Amino acid sequence: MSCPILHKSATILLVGAGPTSSAIIQSTAAHADSVVAADGGFKSAQAAGLDIALVVGDMDSQADLPGSQAAATITDQETTDFEKCLAVCAADVFLGVGFLGGRLDHQLAAFSALLKDQRPVVLVDEDQLVFMVPAQFEIDLEEGLPVGFYPMLHVQVTLQGVQWPLRDTDMHPAGQIATSNISSGEPLRVQTDGPGLLAILPARYLGVVLSVLRG
What we know:
Layout: E1 7-8, E2 11-15, H1 22-29, E3 34-38, H2 41-47, E4 54-57, E5 71-73, H3 81-88, E6 89-90, E7 93-97, H4 104-116, E8 121-124, E9 128-132, E10 136-139, E11 146-151, E12 155-160, E13 166-171, E14 178-182, E15 188-192, E16 197-202, H5 206-213
Parallel strand pairs: 1-6, 2-3, 2-7, 3-4, 4-5, 7-8
Antiparallel strand pairs: 8-9, 9-16, 10-15, 11-14, 11-16, 12-13, 12-15
């Protein structure tokens, strides 16, 4: 989908209509420069008291937006509201709340959007954050934390700093995966030969993850 860019800032928080809370939205917004709501996510962002720069979607959940609210109605039914937001926004890094949990098909569609978009996008809920791992990624994690890595495509991965490390391992959804792993206390280092590996880390490391993804 080709759309003109309607909103731009360094870090944009996208708010979806899925399960979330005002506390999560507000804590995540502290890391962002602006907020864009995906259709029904407007109500969640509004309830959290945020200034919403733009509402984007097919507006099947929004019949009564304030007249002063900037909005972009995109009726294309081949893309999700999350993808529509990404299409009309430009940022160095995107954050997303309200896209994890709830309906499984919506969550899978969000993961698919992460795979399609080459920009850093981090999805956050109360317990975890999910993002597509860049070619090289390293952060310090304390020992004993749950971490997971799931290949959405065939990728070759080296994974260190976990209880069950991998070295130059072919990973595939129907083959080797690395979910239910545990941090060892040594630096977490991940190398992959291409996009396609989802990382699942504790939500409280959002600031650290963002510092790495921003470069």
